[in-house]
What we know:
The complex is a heterodimer of chains A (309) and B (340). Chain A is 76% helix and 0% strand. Chain A is built from 12 helices and no strands. Chain A is flat. Chain B is an all-alpha fold and 340 residues long. Chain B has helices spanning 2-5, 19-22, 33-43, 45-63, 70-73, 107-110, 130-166, 168-182, 186-196, 201-227, 231-238, 243-254, 256-279, 291-301, 307-334, and strands at 97-100, 103-106. In chain B, strands 1-2 form a two-stranded antiparallel ribbon. In chain B, helix 7 runs parallel beside helix 10. Chains A and B meet through helix 1, helix 5, helix 6, helix 7 and helix 10 of A and helix 8, helix 9, helix 13, helix 14 and helix 15 of B.
Amino acid sequence: MSGMIKYVLKRLGIILLTLIIIISITFFLMKLMPGSPLANAARLSDTQRQVIEAQYGLDKPLIVQYWNYVVNALQFNFGNSFQFQNQPVSTLIAQRIGPSAQLGIQALVFGIVFGIGLGAAAAVRRNTAADTGLSIIAVLGVSIPSFVFAALLQYYVGLKLNWLPIAGWEGFKFTILPTIALGMQPMATAARFIRTEMVDVMGSDYIELARAKGLSGSDIVWKHTLRNSLIPLVTLIGPMAVNLMTGSVVIEKIFAIPGIGGQFVSSILTNDYPLIMGTTIVYSMMLMVVLLITDIVYGLIDPRIRLSN
Amino acid sequence: MAELNQATPADFTLLPNDRKRNNETIEKPSLSFMQDAWRRLKKNKGAFISLWIVVIIALAAFLTVPYANPTTTSKQDVNQQNLPAKVPGNIPGLNGMQKVDGQRFDAYKKAHVKQGEYHVFGTDQFGRDIFKRVLYGTRISLEVALIAAMIDLVFGVSYGLISGWKGGRVDMIMQRIVEIVSSVPNLVIFVLLILILKPGLFSIALGISLTSWTSMARLVRAEVLSLKEQDFVSAARTLGTSPVKIGLRHLVPNISSTIIVQLMFTIPSAIFFEALLSFIGIGIPVPMASLGTLLNDGQAAFQFYPYQLVFPAIVMSVLMIAFNLLADGLRDAFDPRTRD
């Protein structure tokens, strides 16, 4: 157990280091940007300029400004947005993180649950027409970009069939199409993975033993094969989280969802540097926490993996 | 046993004398590693068809420069706005008929388009031919992907070679850097880069490869770690071969299959990522067009002119599927053990 704690502390250290590197890069990038808030202020008297610079801490030496920025950023204090007057970046992000998180989690759950189902079905009926069909679905899911899929869903399910709302965020009904669009890729990835794993496990000796003991087919599939195939699936969650983050930026734009992804895009397009930097840091932090959690969970559920190594 | 005892010398025949010489020869022609992989790839129908699809799309995109270039694709014609697809012959759905308020009419006749002039994929809101734009956009997308793959190849492979070869502290530090880079979302790295560089073909490819080189570096390092312990490497070392030469002449050829497969997976993901960036408006700048830009334009108009979205979407999806199937097939062809 102490090995585990040491491991987690080490990982947290790396996370902190990574965050400081990202914060430093963003700080110096901002300093490199041409122009300053006071570039257009020729009419200001020197006293006025000094007052304003003191207000924003711009009168201090660069190294002090840098230190203040790092300390503030680590406390989620990223300054005020340029495009929304005097609104702190942290408030803007906090207001919008809810829908993004909901969409991401729903898509992940949808993808994993259906992916496991499809993958298991394909493995049990392997080398039949059903298996081929499922592997075609998996290839389509991995290959077709989520935003192409989203646009097609919007057109056919939303507009033509009029079953579900095309865009917006006013209740569960509005979340279904974006969840499916975003969850397709995790679903396909999980399905392929589970199928390969299960076929692998089915050839192992302990399944042979279970069969020799006379266990029923469904017992073998559910209790022995599927369970053991699920463990390595945890390692896929990290890469899935990266894809979901990138994908959600577009999906939020297409479905007009008030999340941080859509806000991120508009902040890039309007050069709202504080908001870009804030979102950048929040995104990186979320991903690193997800990666850490999946590693810990993997170590807990699979005794063969020793975290301390 | 009883039957065996009953055998008489007459049951046996003597081998002809020359047989001795021949039984050491191998009947089948010996195949090189690449020939063997090619043979296995040809057996995989999906991958082989995909290979042809990729070749055909790439040829179509790169050989049509005189037909579909920035000059012809940006030719606007106000009279020919939003024409639906029309091909020679009267195929329902592709005959230039449009339906507005339940009334069908020939959009081409209404716009006074000359007889015999066709827009295979229709035209967009500026009257630009979508087929030409798709050809041009595919070319730009492929170019971005190829540049990204090349950067991956040069940088990722050398990084992995150095890290694996040096080992020890150098390896440790280099691997920490890989870990740090890969724990930052790729979109974030890209956005930070695009804030300093002007968006363009090369800077976008660079941004994409800034995030994708890590997996190449990891794979190469892992292979090098096991290869460098082998006898042929120590032999080369003993003979005084320089490390650079060992890397390029002895290690890289031995891991070429891993590198090729990884590159084949990089290309579709670069196409995807570029399309995503262009789709949200931070990718290829406007006078140029990529598949992502076309999808973005199409998505804006899809409620009334769905074909403007559907055609680029089909091309994009076919390209992605073909690349993915081909990469899968190559992986199986190079390493038959991985096939399930």
